[in-house]
Design a protein that fits this description.
By secondary structure, this protein is mainly beta. It is built from 11 helices and 48 strands. The strands form 14 sheets. It has a 17-stranded antiparallel beta sheet that branches. Strands 34-35-37-36 form a 4-stranded antiparallel beta sheet. A 4-stranded antiparallel beta sheet has the order 38-39-41-40.
């Protein structure tokens, strides 16, 4: 009787509640909220149902970034040709699937010459694939990885398999062989080892661990049974064999988080797989979007080789803003490398063939001379192999402005902590220009020196007045040999202030509050620099303004400051014997006339026509390509970075695309179409046209609201 009452009460309580089950397929869940999303800022996935992808033909450019990103979130991506007549996709290739993977450098790989760590694999080596055949390695990749790694131990295998969380592994299931992500592999899942189909006469097989070697009859031989003590409690009979594979059950799984772990991968011809730690794993597809490690990248607000960039630093992007670097990529590259020389830049850009540059492709005139037209659009990302001499490369103009009223200097003295403030007026910026051009700080002292020529008495008096005005102490002037006048100021406050701009001619730079100052202040900065280290160069057919420095960073910074003033300049690097390189900042033509007018200096140059190869608008400087050449390299280290939000950076003064984890054009992303995602692996290999079909809602729907921030789902 009690049981009946309890059951009746339970039924009554739930009678007016909504039903939690559906009459599928007549009734389907309508999932509110976003589906799964990858967040490149944190390197993590956002909560949401993982359905199949949707492709937007109108947005896809055929850039292949989805297929070539090394940390994809699915098993494979193939770019398939399909004529759709979309103007933005000239190659007419479209994505089908996603994948990404890597393994640690110590991972043993089965090659035709024995088992060796993956770090000793080279392009041209032949490795065993899932087909039981040995295929040629076409690329070797190396990078630093932060995230989770999975380690699998299988019965009969003395060497565990360790992979990153996005690396597919070949697993035997009741439905057949399937590629599975590490988090989908469970205890007692069967990992696979191919039976060798080729008859080899290899050289002596050596491997430091001595666990396995390929048998000439096709298969593997266990050479050390004591190594399998970790497998106690598991019967060797659990190892199975098919006509093509040896199947070993997983007996232990461990997961840990690593930081900056060096990992590697291979690209293998034809079969796109290889055998690592005696288990079949998928290979990688190289993005080819990389530059030379010495490439100078515009940081906030300086200049730094890409090899020295760290995660968290900010770099200049095509929008003129500075964005955070979220990942660093290093690869070993074999293939064509391009040298692109832009006018006005002292160094060439070295990049791989598919590394895209922000470009305006200039059409030819219809006139007889076929001269390239001076156009500023369309602006597009173009690989160097598709660009030509004369096309414009773009340099962004930074938009940021820092309006600092006072600059404070703190230091410890015998009387305690002292604080002095300087009002950041335009005249102070002219004094900073004098220091950048002619200043130095005595070694082991607190004395600041400004050195002028004996004929520059007017500058001497101006510098003395500014030092007296801002530091409250009379400076001392001394005439030296070689027609030099030294203006000296021995004051801790002054020494600490000028230390912000570097010590030593080659180390001088602009701090951010000067680099991003307002226009009227930066005009005085350039004027002080030009009065100290500049001149007017007179040639037979032209006159131009010149500023010379031995600091590479300062030269780039001054060139950027000039663009903020609406002036285009060119940097020429002069290599001098037994002396520091000289970076000469030259301002030609109408730009020189404009700058001279802003600084209020005489510049009598009024030609009837200016021959100007540069263009400029409020966002970019357009610099023509002077030359493009290519050469073949083998196993050359190349690098790239991932930049948040804008997915671009400025290297060697040129805007270029970064390496990304997700489609930058939102052309391909996951949906909440759970019905399709529940299918087995073969059915997920959709063509581009199938991916472009939006999910359908059929019949009555229940709604499930997903909160990505809390990671919760509520039924309604």
């Amino acid at each position: 009787m009690k049981g009946v009452l309890v059951a009746t009460w339970a039924g009554a309580r739930h009678f007016f509640r909504p039903r939690m089950t559906l009459r599928y397929p007549e009734q389907k869940l309508d999932l509110e909220g976003p589906g799964y999303r990858y967040d490149p800022k944190t390197g993590t996935g956002l909560p949401g149902f993982k359905g199949r992808h949707i492709l937007y033909f109108d947005k896809c450019t055929g850039c292949q970034l989805c297929a070539i990103a090394c940390d994809g979130v699915a098993v494979a991506i193939e770019m398939q040709p399909l004529p759709k007549g979309k103007a933005q996709n000239k190659k007419e290739i479209w994505p089908a699937v996603d994948y990404g993977r890597c393994v640690p450098t110590w991972t043993p790989v089965v090659t035709s010459n024995g088992i060796v760590p993956i770090e000793r694999i080279h392009v041209g080596d032949r490795v065993l694939t899932h087909t039981g055949k040995f295929r040629r390695v076409s690329q070797v990749f190396r990078r630093e990885y932060t995230g989770r790694v999975y380690t699998f131990r299988t019965l009969g295998n003395g060497e565990p398999l360790t992979v990153t969380e996005g690396h597919p592994v070949l697993v035997h299931t009741p439905e057949g062989l399937k590629w599975r992500m590490p988090d989908q592999i469970e205890y007692q899942s069967y990992l696979t080892r191919p039976i060798i189909k080729e008859t080899l006469v290899p050289r002596e097989l050596q491997y430091s661990y001595g666990f396995y070697h390929p048998s000439l009859g096709g298969g593997y031989s266990t050479v050390s049974m004591p190594l399998l003590q970790f497998a106690q409690g598991h019967s060797p009979s659990a190892i199975r064999m098919t006509g093509d594979m040896i199947l070993s059950p997983v007996i232990d799984i461990s997961v840990k988080t690593v930081a900056d772990l060096e990992v590697m991968n291979l690209e293998v011809e034809e079969d796109n797989s290889f055998v690592a730690s005696n288990q079949v794993v998928h290979n990688c597809v190289f993005c080819g979007l990389c530059v030379d490690p010495e490439t100078e990248v515009a940081t906030n607000p300086g200049l730094k080789p890409i090899k020295d960039i760290k995660v968290g630093e900010r770099v200049l992007t095509h929008t003129g803003a500075y964005r955070r670097v979220s990942k660093i990529w290093r690869f070993s590259y074999t293939g064509p490398i391009y040298e692109v020389k832009a006018m006005g830049k002292p160094n060439s850009l070295l990049c791989t063939s598919d590394h895209r540059l922000l470009t305006v492709k200039r059409p030819s005139s219809k006139k007889r001379d076929k001269r390239l037209l001076r156009v500023t659009e369309p602006v597009e990302m173009v690989p160097p192999k598709d660009a030509k001499a004369g096309d414009y490369l773009l340099t962004p103009i930074p938009k940021k402005v820092i309006r600092l009223r006072n600059f404070s200097v703190k230091w410890n003295s015998s009387a305690g902590v002292k604080v002095m403030k300087l009002r950041t007026e335009p005249d102070l910026f002219r004094l900073i220009g004098y220091y950048l051009a002619e200043g130095s700080i005595g070694e082991g002292s607190r004395v600041v020196y400004l050195s002028f020529g004996s004929s520059e008495q007017e500058l001497v008096e101006d510098a003395r007045g500014l030092l007296r005005r801002y530091f409250g102490k009379e400076p001392y002037s001394q005439k030296l040999a070689h027609h030099v006048i030294n203006v000296r100021l021995g004051l801790t406050f002054a020494m600490l202030f000028f230390m912000n701009f570097g010590r030593g001619a080659a180390n001088k730079t602009l701090p951010d509050w000067v680099f991003f100052a307002s226009k009227e202040k930066q005009v005085q900065l350039i004027k002080g620099m030009w009065l100290g280290d500049g001149c007017v160069v007179r040639q037979s057919r032209q006159k131009y303004l010149n500023i010379t420095t031995t600091s590479k960073v300062l030269a780039y910074q001054l060139q950027t400051v000039l663009t903020r003033l609406g002036v285009v300049s060119a940097i020429h690097c002069e290599i001098r014997k037994n002396r520091l390189p000289a970076y000469r900042l030259n301002v030609f033509g109408r730009w020189a006339v404009k700058l001279a007018g802003m600084m209020g200096i005489p510049f009598e140059h009024n030609p009837s026509k200016f021959v100007d190869k540069f263009l400029m608008n409020e966002d970019y400087v357009f610099s023509p390509i002077e030359s493009i050449s290519s050469s073949h390299v083998t196993n050359r280290e190349v690098m790239d970075i991932t930049v948040e939000d804008d997915h671009t950076f400025v290297g060697q003064g040129i805007v270029q695309h970064n390496c990304v984890d997700a489609c930058p054009f939102d052309a391909l992303f996951m949906t909440n179409d759970y019905e399709l995602s529940s299918y087995d692996k073969p059915s997920l290999k959709y063509s581009p046209e199938q991916l472009a079909i939006p999910p359908k809602t059929v019949g009555y729907t229940f709604r499930v609201k997903i909160d990505p921030e809390k990671g919760t789902a509520t039924h309604g």
